[in-house]
Amino acid sequence: MIEVTRRANSVVEVRSRMDPVKGQLDDTRALAMTADLPPEIAARVVPGFCRLAIEAACMAAVRRRRLGRGETHDKVEELLESNGETHPLLALALFDDEKRTADVLAGLEKLTRGAADTLQAYKSGSHQAHTGDLADLVDATRRLTDQLVGLK
Predict the structure, then answer these.
(1) Which end of the chain is flanked by fewer CB atoms within 10 Å, N or C?
(2) Average pLDDT for the chain
(3) Residue 11: pLDDT band by 50, 70, 90 thresholds?
(4) DSSP-assigned letters across all residues of 58-69
(5) Considering the domain boundaries, does residue 9 fall inside one?
(6) pLDDT at 16
(7) 27: in domain
(8) What is the SS3 assignment for 3-43?
(9) Distance CA 22, CA 12 (A)
């Protein structure tokens, strides 16, 4: 996959993007470290980008698992599209059951310590500015996405 981005002064950047999770995390870290972005805006935007990385990791885990056992691409994509919110995607990744959303926080904590806090940080960040260190949030998101992508 190739991504084309138009930067300031109409500079066009072309880069290879084979891994959507890594790409999302790289973009999130770049945003968190952008000196020209006012901190109060970064504190509102970065958690949302972290959420997108977590969702991409969930989709990768679900695709690998379900395609690996022989489900069709159409069926898997339909499942992901109909469960496009974070908690159902996490339930699919963690339990292979989109209805187990009530078990997501406990499942995340079993997966990696502090994962539930990471989830709560990005959720609250969409309503109010994140008060913690943004680089730490991105690092915690990377650890969580690594765990999610690695699920069998």
Answers:
(1) C
(2) 90
(3) confident
(4) HHHHHHHHHHHT
(5) no
(6) 66
(7) yes
(8) EEEECHHHCEEEEECCCHHHHHHHHHHHHHCCCCCCHHHHH
(9) 21
Q: Which domain holds residue 136?
A: 20-149
Contact yes or no for 111/148 (Cβ under 8 A): yes
2 has which bridge partners?
16
Report the share of the chain in percent with pLDDT over 70.
95
Give pTM, 2 decimals: 0.84
Residues in a beta bridge with 13:
5
Output DSSP code: residue 102. G
How many structural domains is the chain composed of? 1
Enumerate residues 6+ apart whose C-beta is below 8 A from 77. Answer: none
> Is residue 70 left, alpha or beta, with left meaning phi > 0 and alpha meaning psi from -120 to 50?
left
Residue 2 lies in a domain: no
Place of tokens 């972005």: 37
